[in-house]
Amino acid sequence: MENSLHKYLQFIEVSVKEIAFPTKPVSLYQPMTYILDLGGKRVRPILTLIACEVFGTEFQRAKNASLAIELFHNFSLIHDDIMDNAPLRRGKPTVHQKWNQNIAILSGDGMLIEAYKLLHNYSPEISHSLAAVFNKTASEVCEGQQLDMDFETLNQVFITDYLEMIRLKTAVLLGCSLQMGAIVGGASKENQDDVYAFGMNLGIAFQLQDDILDLYADQAKFGKQVGGDILSNKKTYLLLKAFEDANSDQKEMLSQMISEKNPDQKIKLAKTIFAELNIREKAESKMNEYYELALKNLAHLKVDSSHKKPLQDLAEFLMSRQN
Amino acid sequence: MENSLHKYLQFIEVSVKEIAFPTKPVSLYQPMTYILDLGGKRVRPILTLIACEVFGTEFQRAKNASLAIELFHNFSLIHDDIMDNAPLRRGKPTVHQKWNQNIAILSGDGMLIEAYKLLHNYSPEISHSLAAVFNKTASEVCEGQQLDMDFETLNQVFITDYLEMIRLKTAVLLGCSLQMGAIVGGASKENQDDVYAFGMNLGIAFQLQDDILDLYADQAKFGKQVGGDILSNKKTYLLLKAFEDANSDQKEMLSQMISEKNPDQKIKLAKTIFAELNIREKAESKMNEYYELALKNLAHLKVDSSHKKPLQDLAEFLMSRQN
Questions:
Q1: What is the reported pTM?
Q2: CA distance linking residue B7 with residue B15, whole number of Å
Q3: What does B122-164 look like in DSSP terms, one character per residue?
Q4: Which one is predicted more confidently, B90 or A274?
Q5: Hey, is the C-beta of A132 within 8 angstroms of any chain B C-beta?
Q6: Inter-chain contacts counted by CB atoms under 8 A, chains A and B
Q7: Which residue, among B91, B106, B1, has the nearest Cα to B38 in the 3D structure?
Q8: What confidence category does residue A224 fall into, taking pLDDT thresholds of 50, 70 and 90?
Q9: Which positions in chain B touch A24 (Cβ < 8 Å)?
Q10: Looking at chain A, which terminus has fewer C-beta neighbours within 10 angstroms, N or C?
């Protein structure tokens, strides 16, 4: 992470450690500490802190809002991991794996409620404004997760529906993180809308990059198995775009690739068809489209440009990652 | 239900029908409408409406607060039914049974968020006050559910721990329902505390009555199988009290009863030992103790006694039920 962003990350790490959940019942609260301690890039809470500072308010004032976002994110990870039947999260056992499924359901619920408690630590007016965007976003994230699950069993998913799904599941929470920081920072409604849009567009670009990296990352630098989405026949932007652009012969090849059981063969086949169809370039072009939109939102923001630096740094950091 | 309470019930039924969840994704929102349509006594939202009116404010003002409580209650039912592996709720398939477990997890999450949205429909000050008691109670309900699950695998559960569990799992939500109505109604802090305590003590009495009815209800009037708790070896007040008061011979009989597989034999055995130990009378005495406490809280409430009538009616209605 860029040096200029380090102070925010450090502040979040210290603040996360300071969260004092009740100690009992152990099996309700221990999983919350466990998943928070697994770490991560803390992108969302950092966005909240930065957005607060952008509007001339010291970023520490946004502590509770940023922690609420981080707790919400981790609540959604606990429940998503159950739904996805995922054994590992950041290389460690998921909550339902380490404890059991009932504990994962309930401690996830409890964590969502803890997020709401943190939002309460502001004046009634600020809390009320924060809750408006937080509630709306929380519903949207659930909608995105439901669409993602619905897509698994659909024969055909249109690119526009896919983009709407990743907007809901991933991107709006980045927008919300920024808007909440902006609210604490005292931003005008217009500026709030601009940072929200910046985060949302950046989030879509970020997710498209995720889809691209999954197949084209350097295995030495990539945290997980390269080609994981291909191996699980996941309907990512790459696969959907390939189906959309394929002629009938290529569609036949894609179907063969889907049924292929040999992992190396399967990935090789995907790469061959995708190369024929220029899928990587098309995905990068779509990603850049959203990244450009985000930069436009940032340019439109009515604050001294020198104040925008950390947001620019974070956007560049996110878009230059290799894992 | 008493005639005097009918107007509240009718208002809740109409209000529940009027809730307009988004229509998509269908599998996220349809289960919410489904479980709300299963009905129930609507005790909690009625408490909210009454508490508002007690303080001289028209009960319709408490609509959103009462619906938030009803949604929260139904969210907890959806998730509890997964954890308890329950196939039926009010004689109909549970959400995880009718759809699937993932949909039940996610639509439960979404329903909790919808509850928070309803709380947002008040002024910042009122919302902030409502959120304080709602957040605290929501955490406590999760803690109660966790304790209930923990108890299943414990060899010994003390009566005091059991009472604390039912206080958290069931009773505090009745207190919260009343306090939220009182907040909307403009009650003083002292009056808020009194209605809260009234609801909480009534809730404990209500749950103890549940334990008693499970074994001693008239099967013709009882909605479920009489003796269900005995058949599943559930650690209710009756069973825990029996273990506490039993001499070594009686403890031996209780252990035999626990291992007994024949349903009729098992229930007969439980009734015999419980009769020897006067368990029913002891449970009723404990229940009345909490009911008396609730009535004291009501007497202490500083409003014109004529205004207390609906609360008295509801308390009597709850304690006179036979199912």
A1: 0.96
A2: 12
A3: S-HHHHHHHHHHHHHHHHHHHHHHHHHHHHHT-S---HHHHHH
A4: A274
A5: yes
A6: 116
A7: B91
A8: confident
A9: 143
A10: C
B60 vs B50: CA distance, rounded Å: 10
How many residues are listed for chain B in this entry? 323
With beta carbons less than 8 A apart as the criterion, state whether B207 and B234 touch. no
Are A120 and A127 in contact by the 8 Å Cβ rule? The answer is yes
| A28 band by pLDDT with thresholds 50, 70 and 90 | very high
Residues B106/B108/B113/B114 CA torsion (nearest 10 deg): 120
Give CA angle at A271 (A270, A276), nearest 5°: 100
Distance from CA of B229 to the nearest CA of A (A): 21
Complex ipTM value: 0.96
- Pairwise CB contact (< 8 Å): A116 & B135: yes
pLDDT of residue B223: 75
CA distance B235 to B16: 35
pLDDT of residue B4: 81
Q: How far is A25 from chain B (nearest CA, A)?
A: 6
* pLDDT tens-digit readout, B142-184: 999 999 999 999 989 999 999 999 999 999 999 999 999 999 9
**Does A131 touch chain B if contact means CB atoms closer than 8 Å?**
yes
Please report the pLDDT score of residue A219 as a whole number: 85
Average pLDDT over residues B231-238: 96
Q: Scanning every residue of chain B, which has its alpha carbon at the shortest distance from the alpha carbon of A140?
A: B110
Domain tally, chain A:
1
What's at A158, amino acid-wise?
F
Q: What is the CATH number of the domain that holds B272?
A: 1.10.600.10
Nearest to B132 by CA among A182, A128, A117: A117
- Domain extent, residue A247, equals 3-319
Residue A14, Cβ density class (10 Å: 0-12 exposed, 13-18 middle, ≥19 buried): exposed
A161: closest chain B residue by CA: B25
Give B2-57 as a DSSP string: -GGGHHHHHHHHHHHHH------SHHHHHHHHHHHHT----HHHHHHHHHHHHTTS
